[in-house]
Every structure is written in structure tokens, then in C-alpha cells.
């Protein structure tokens, strides 16, 4: 059965990568035989639309089954991400003269990690968050929150309640929505005539260049470029007027967006990025068709590392029970026979099993108890932060490892 683009409905013919069937990347299991037996897997394949440029998963898992009460990802467990959020608040307040008279709305506000910094500056905020457990934490931090999904209908309701926004923030959410056109249409509704929306998302070009296949999972329905996002925004009468390239999540874009016809001029950075994407061939099949073979090489190399460690009697633990880590481990076929356990600071993940691989998750204190020879950093985008916070592994001769885009041992 042919697949069609979830934005423009054109047939899909170009495959980026097929990672097989895996469970949802954040569906951690209780350590029981019954939970393991009931675990479900879904195809994880990404294809690219040659009409609009949108890279997308071919199997759409219902969002209301993933982003629910008990959703395990909480943003505030990363110190570097909190620092990123604090800098964003400082910059936006200064650049767009935000104050007590303004309204900031964040879509997918999680546990209040970002809006708390606007609250501290006296700027009125509202967070929209479908995961009830995260929204409750945000409320405890003084961040007013609504538990719902965002789209044109919910934006219309919020507008009627008086929440027209001077600034709308959407950090790492655009990839998470199955109906991307309806989602973006909500910004056209809720944004004031001269308001600004910012969208942050991992850049498809960086994903390809860095072989970041492990950032592909069911919660990410889309993999985004400026090429694709400009077409999606145009469908909602929105335009990009500025862009920044960020180091977060392996290389992200921050797009500054306004209503078509609003006053701000487009910066040179937008045209420069358009030209770079065109030079990389993102409008052609070429960069996508060579990606899969490079991904296979990463898997082969990692399996070789595991075999060598086993032959030498070395023990391996993982650090960070991140979604990207679960994609990576499942694609590579790793299990608890290869990696004894994974540690994570998030208590919602501790004493559970990773989806698919069924590797147990413990608190970081388990590293000191077990003294593994290798600590595999699964959240490689936080490698510097993790290596600093867990530098004590050197006391027993432990070494850090990352595996994407190639094996690296410190």
C-alpha cells in the first residue's frame, strides 16, 4: 500500500531509513513478565516527500496514546537545557520588549522548564501541555497551564478567552504533531498581528550529516528542514523572518515567524540557509538515498564494540534513558546481556525497563556501586554535561563511550 505525505498528500517514493519495528521510545515497562508480553512494536520507517520536502514516519501512532498522564520525558532534568531556556527568555524579553503588558504562550510547555523564567520577569504566561503529569509540575512552579493538544480549534477557544499572544514558543514540538497543518494553523489564530512565534527543532540537514538516526522515533512524526517548514507555514499565512542555528539536540534551527504582511524584514540568515539546503540537495533524493548504508555501518561498528568488550570480560552500563538511546539500542539489537543497566536522573524512569531491549533503569548512584568498565552515553547531545557530572568513573578506571556517528572512547 503506497504512503502519502501527511502534509501535502503526494505519494511518497524516497526512503530515508527503515529501522524495523520497535516499541514507543518512551514506553518504559514495569519489570514484570506480563508487561513484557503485552509490549507492542510499530514500524519505524521514514520517507521524504519530494513535493514539499517533509521527511516523515510512515506509521502514525495516535498522539493521545503517547503524550498522556505519566509521559516520562521531563525537560527540567537537564541542566544544559534549563540554561538554554533561561537564555531564550532573556533574549526574547530584550529583543521584543516583553513585560507585564505582554502575553507569552508556549506550546508543549512540559514541566514549566521555560515559562518559569518569564514568570520570574513578571511576564504573563500560559503553557499548553497534553501530558497531565508534566502540566501539574508546571503549575506547582507558578506556570499557568492547560492540559490539551494545540490546534486551530484550541487556539480559537484560547483567543476567545483573551490569550492573544505577543510571543509563542514551540520548542521541539513541531516534529511531534501528526496533523502538522492543523497545528501550525493555530499559530495564525492565536498570534497577535505583530506577534512573533519561534519554532525550534532538530535540523534534518544535521541529522543526515551526523548520522543521527537515533533521533528517529514514533513520537517524532516529522524531520524538518527550512525547505519543508516554510511551505507548511505558508499554508497558514505565516512567514519566516529570521533564523538561528543552535547546537542543541545535535544541531537545531530556531525560526522566527510572523504573519504574512507583518512589519519585520527578512534577514540575510534566512536566504543563506535556503541556499545551503539547496546546495546539500535536500530537494532531491540524493542525500536521503545514501543515508541508510551509513546507518548500517554505525550498527555494525557498535556490535563489534560490544563483542570485543564481552571477549575481554568488560562490563558496560548506559547513561541517560533517552528516547534516542532506545531507538539506537533496539536498532542494534542490544539487550541486558550486552548492557547491564542504564542510569537516569528522572525518577519516573527508574526501576523500570527500557522499551524493547528490557535493560533495567537505575539511579546514577548505581554507577558507583557497579563500577562498570564502560559508560555508554546514550544522550550524546548531553555528553559534555554527563562527562562532567560523572567524572568520578575515572576513579575505578571507567571510560565513557559514544557510538553516533562513530565509536568514540574517552
Walk me through this protein's architecture.
It is a single chain. The protein is of the alpha/beta class and 410 residues long. It has two domains: 214 residues, Rossmann fold (3-Layer(aba) Sandwich); 116 residues, NAD(P)-binding Rossmann-like Domain (Rossmann fold), CATH 3.40.50. It has 15 helices and 17 strands. The strands form three sheets. It has a seven-stranded mixed β-sheet. Helix 6 runs parallel beside helix 7. It starts with 13 loop residues before the first strand and ends with a strand. The mean pLDDT is 94.
- Which band does the percent of strand residues land in? 15-25%
The CATH topology assignment of the largest domain is Rossmann fold
The CATH class of the largest domain: Alpha Beta
Distance between the termini: 47 Å
Instruction: Kindly report the name of the CATH homologous superfamily of the largest domain.
Output: Vaccinia Virus protein VP39
Shape: globular
Q: Based on DSSP secondary structure assignment, what is the total number of beta strands?
A: 17
Strand order of the largest sheet: 6-5-4-7-8-11-10
**CATH architecture annotation of the largest domain:** 3-Layer(aba) Sandwich
Structural class: alpha/beta
Q: Mind telling me the C-alpha Rg?
A: 21 Å
| Mean pLDDT across residues | 94
Largest sheet: 7 strands, mixed
Poorly predicted runs of 5 or more residues: none
Can you count the helices?
A: 15
Q: Number of domains in the coordinates? A: 2
Approximate helicity band: 25-40%
